[in-house]
UniProtKB/TrEMBL annotation, chain A:
Subcellular location: Cell membrane
Lineage, broadest ranks: Bacteria, Bacillati, Bacillota, Bacilli, Lactobacillales
Organism of this sequence: Alkalibacterium pelagium
Assembly behavior: The complex is composed of six subunits: RnfA, RnfB, RnfC, RnfD, RnfE and RnfG.
Protein name stated in the entry: Ion-translocating oxidoreductase complex subunit C
Physiological role: Part of a membrane-bound complex that couples electron transfer with translocation of ions across the membrane.
Protein encoded by which gene: rnfC
Automatic annotation (TrEMBL), chain B:
GO CC field: plasma membrane
Protein's name according to its UniProt entry: Ion-translocating oxidoreductase complex subunit D
Subunit structure and binding partners: The complex is composed of six subunits: RnfA, RnfB, RnfC, RnfD, RnfE and RnfG.
Function: Part of a membrane-bound complex that couples electron transfer with translocation of ions across the membrane.
Organism name: Alkalibacterium pelagium
EC main group: translocase
TM stretches of this protein: 90-115, 197-218, 227-244
Location within or outside the cell: Cell membrane
UniProt keywords, alphabetically: Cell membrane, Electron transport, Flavoprotein, FMN, Membrane, Phosphoprotein, Translocase, Transmembrane, Transmembrane helix, Transport
Bilayer topology term: Multi-pass membrane protein
GO terms, biological process: electron transport chain; transmembrane transport
Amino acid sequence: MRFSFMGKHGGSHPEENKSRTSKLPIVDASVPKIMVYPVSMHIGAPAKPIVEVGDKVKAGQVIAEEGGFVSANVYSSVSGEVIAIEKRGKIGGGEVDSIIVKNDYEYTKADPIVEPGRSQDMSKDEIIQTVRKAGIVGMGGATFPTAVKLSPPPGMTIDTLIINGAECEPYSTSDHRVMVEHADEIIHGINLSRALFPQLRRIFIGVEDNKPDAIKALEEASAEYDDIFVRPLKTMYPQGSEKNLIKSMTGREVSPGGLPAEVRCVVANTSTIRSCYRACEFGEPLIERIVSVSGTPIREPKNLRVKIGTPMDSLIEDCGGFAAVPGKVLGGGPMMGKTVSDLGVPIIKGTTAITVLTPEEAEQGDSHDCIMCSECLNVCPVSLQPILISEAFERGNIDKAQELGAMDCIECGNCSFICPSKIPLLENIRSAKAAIKAKEEK
Amino acid sequence: MAQAIDVKGKLQVGPSPHVRSKRTAAWVMDQVLIALIPPTIAATFFFGWWVLGMVAIGIGTAVASEYIYQKLTYKPIKIHDHSAAVTGMLVALSLPVTAPIWMIMFGSIFAIVIVKQLNGGIGRNYFNPAVAARVTIKALFTPWLANWVLPGGLLGSGFRGVDAIGSATPLEFIGNGAQVVPEQVPELFDLFMGFNLGGNVGETSKFAILIGMLYLIFRKVINPKVPILYILTTFVVMALWSSFNWNFEMTHILTGTLFFGATYMATDYSSGSLTPEGKTVFAIGCGLLTAIFRITLDHPGGVGYSILIMNALAPFIDSKLMPRIYGHKRRPQTKFDRQSNNA
């Protein structure tokens, strides 16, 4: 049985383009001489640098400490010397304070963050503290600090854990390979959560049905647990959106602006739960992640094990460079990924993939009049009427955009993708959201 | 390895999503034009080569009047979206083979200028241009319309085949209070295929229209529930009215403009409902009204009136049936209004 997040509408089918990397085993990326660690690779307060230029650092040493409750530690992923702390470009544009480390290629390791080998015996508080210390954030792209997510507000019980292995973005295969190659670590990570949520009754792992090998690996790894259910999801974008996964797995809907915990759910990405396990079991902070590098201009696409802080150009060289002129280089996939203007920007904790599009593939098309085909309504996963919000915004009617639910938009991009008149629907809705926020802050 | 291609300063930046579906508005309109080919072929077969002339006049006049209107009003020329061509083809196929040339031209100009452009242009017109043109022609020019022309066709007198001019359509025998099918009405199979049937050229062969309908459904250009619910609703009402006389309700759904209107007109984007549930109500409403008009009126035309009335109601229906947003308890409570392209 396949689970889809909705019966009558929602979801689109952009070309998957995963076949070039979906069968390739993960390989180690080369590690360049210069590594770049932004102090803000998560949602929340930036981390505060605790090293100075000239300091020697070890691999796995904290170089910037969390700057608040919603924040995360930043670690050096190599050993070497801090050569600068300065503003550097980031994925999505703009600049962020970054710690630059010159790799000495010694890989001198810092002490593990906790004593290895005792993850089974950890208490709830120990697990949360370890996840927090390890600097783990949502690795599916959202980059929300995981320790905060794993500590629901008092009075809220969690009965369902949902592991998000949908990986609905075209081109991306990093989660896919993690599920195939490290299914056991994902299951170990799930078992840690039993200590966190005593009322836990069911664990669902949602995987799109275009990844039968991942489903099989997870089913085998979880065979001995009768409360872990691997749920094949219909391949449809955006199956992996948190709200929609909760709906398709449990039938529950999170209220506007609410947390999954209010419907007794916690959702975590496959790579995130694996990192939680590795932090608790081996004392490893989050200094590595899997990144798929693909797209037509990439000569030899790969799934790479990447040290966080590695600039993009190093990974693209690992993949043979460009065989054709790239139009857009994205951190993430083509639906929700962010563009980069310079390949020197580093991979951060939430970078699932590098996707490179040719100028033709990235062509947005000229915008024309709406023909009222209603496709944007049909594909919206949260049942908005994107064209009406977009038009209300264009008329300057911000109240109307709000009444039509602009703030409920999850920015999946389906409406802009599907529109035959190439109307920049999501752009307009984003602008409407910004205008609503500005109005409410007055 | 050195990078062979220098990308510095050449990469595009911008907001997501970074890919677009290949479908364009013109492609969508082209699919409708393609779906109108089977009825056109059938019409040519039954009524002669002149049908192609009618279609050419309809399309030519519609496209030309849109071009001239946009030129005269200093608006961007939008004939390349092919929607005017669709309207012109629908107008031509909605007329009998005896329709004079000026009537086809009048219909196309009326549809494009008055119904479409003066109401805001593509995507904004509340009424279906081809339906409005057809109803207007019927109201104004009935004396010039020898409505029920029996075909001569390619096998008969060739170019503009007219063998006989009938005085009444089958609808007049089964409408206006009738509950059984009199003998004068053709067999169901003939009604379905369009054999020996008169009427407006495009709507005679339900078989050909069905091919067009299936094509549009297969191409995901129309929502299948609109034509299906429309026809089914008429069928059910007629079944109740005739106390389940199978022959009566089948004759009804295979007669007149029902198939043609349900496939190509009730599915029109701008004049139909936008919301998923609105589409359901719209289609059922069309079916109910068509059945009621056929039972009560003493002349044909129920499909046209029904679609126009539902066109007028569509914004109201949509405002009441806006989809409930994820996580919300109620539907959005706001008026359904749209801005004109002219504004």
